[in-house]
Amino acid sequence: MQSPNYPNLSFAQRATLLEVPASGKVPMVIDSDTFNEIDDQFAIAWALLNNKRIDLQAVYAAPFTNSMFNDSHEAVSEAKVGMELSYDEIHRVFDRMNVENKPLVLKGSTQYVKDSKEPEVSPAVQDLIDRAKQSEQTLQVVSIGAPTNIAHALLAAPEIINNIHVIWLGGHAFDWKNTEEFNLLQDIEASRTLLDSGVALTLVPCMGVANTLASSVPEIQHYLLGTSELGDYLAKEAPKCPWIGFANRKVIWDIAAVGYVIEPKWFTEEIKASPILNDNLTWSFDLTRHPIRVIKYIERDELFVDLFTRIINC
Q1: Is 24 helix (H, G, I), strand (E, B) or coil?
Q2: DSSP 8-state code for residue 277
């Protein structure tokens, strides 16, 4: 697929787009492979429960493939299947939340960018394009899965770069031995599109950064079981995910990207040149490339205290 001519943001434009307002309500959409694990459910629920800070306008179902099983006991072997399972799971989470003005839930891409000859303008992609063009403020685009929907939108309408800030949980820290991470690996061409496009980007690496956001089944059930309909649902779903075993914890990765919009002060960050994603799944660097924000450290407890408190009281 041929890369379009993206707008070339000035330093001032990029700095403005990257700046999450310190106060007030922030317009946001989330792109999520929600059925894949348990962390997406926490993330989208947390965003909606922070309705004085976040104006969650839409949630997009992202595609994924892996060895998890659906209700028919078949592996999620196609992008379309993963996307549709995620679409249904988003609804299940929202159905357990007693809040007004729930966001739109839209189906995303049925093909990865790597498998597409032209950008796939799914309902989610079209909504992102339209919403970005119409937003009076910078639209915060939280991507917590393969960035397939985001990449299709950038390829179909490169001008939306002028109106959005993407916060993507993807890849590993720049000093990690490789960047063989699930979200990045699912659609390498989409990941490259995001990194190469020049869009205002905050990158939340997984290993080396977001892996501090670990919890356990006993902890989740201790705090959430019996507290609210949503708390019960998450506490009962948690053991179904692939936990390693006795005395082990699992990272609730995806809350990192939502947490950055809620309170950037919980994060230590730096500005770096956008990395080059090599074919051998390592990073390399060219200091002449456009700058992005990279998260270096997360105040783990700040996120979990706010997250659990809101779920308990919802």
Answers
A1: coil
A2: E
Are the C-beta atoms of 150 and 166 separated by less than 8 Å? yes
What's the whole-number average pLDDT of the chain? 93
Cβ neighbour number for residue 247 with a 10 Å cutoff: 7
Rounded to whole angstroms, the Cα distance separating 253 from 214 reads 8
- Residue owning tokens 């031995």: 177
Q: Mapping DSSP to helix (H, G, I), strand (E, B) and coil, where does residue 253 land?
A: coil
Q: Is the pTM of this model over 0.70?
A: yes
Q: Using CA atoms, how far apart are residues 83 and 81, in angstroms rounded to an integer?
A: 5
**188 and 277 Cβ atoms separated by less than 8 Å:** yes
Can you tell me the distance from the alpha carbon of 270 to that of 277, in angstroms, rounded to the nearest whole number? 19
Tokens describing residue 295: 């998260």
pLDDT in tens, 132-189: 999 999 999 999 999 999 999 999 999 999 999 999 999 999 999 999 999 999 999 9
Spatial CB neighbours of 24, under 8 Å, sequence gap ≥ 6: none
Q: Which two tokens stand for residue 197?
A: 């496009």
H-state helical runs in the chain: 11-18, 39-49, 79-95, 123-134, 148-156, 182-186, 188-196, 217-224, 229-237, 255-262, 300-312
In contact, 53 and 25? CB cutoff 8 Å: yes
Length of the chain: 314
At 198, which amino acid appears? G
Stretch 193-204: mean pLDDT, rounded? 98
Cβ-in-10-Å burial (0-12, 13-18, 19+) of 302 comes to: middle
Q: Using the predicted structure, report yes or no on whether residue 73 has a pLDDT greater than 70.
A: no
Determine the pLDDT at residue 76.
63
Residue 283: which residues within 8 A CB-CB, separation 6 or more?
171, 174, 179, 275, 276, 277
DSSP 8-class letter at 226: T
Cα dihedral 241→312→51→152 (10° resolution): 0
Helix, strand, coil: what percent of the chain each, to 5? 40, 20, 40
Rg (CA), the chain: 18
The SS3 call for residue 289 is coil
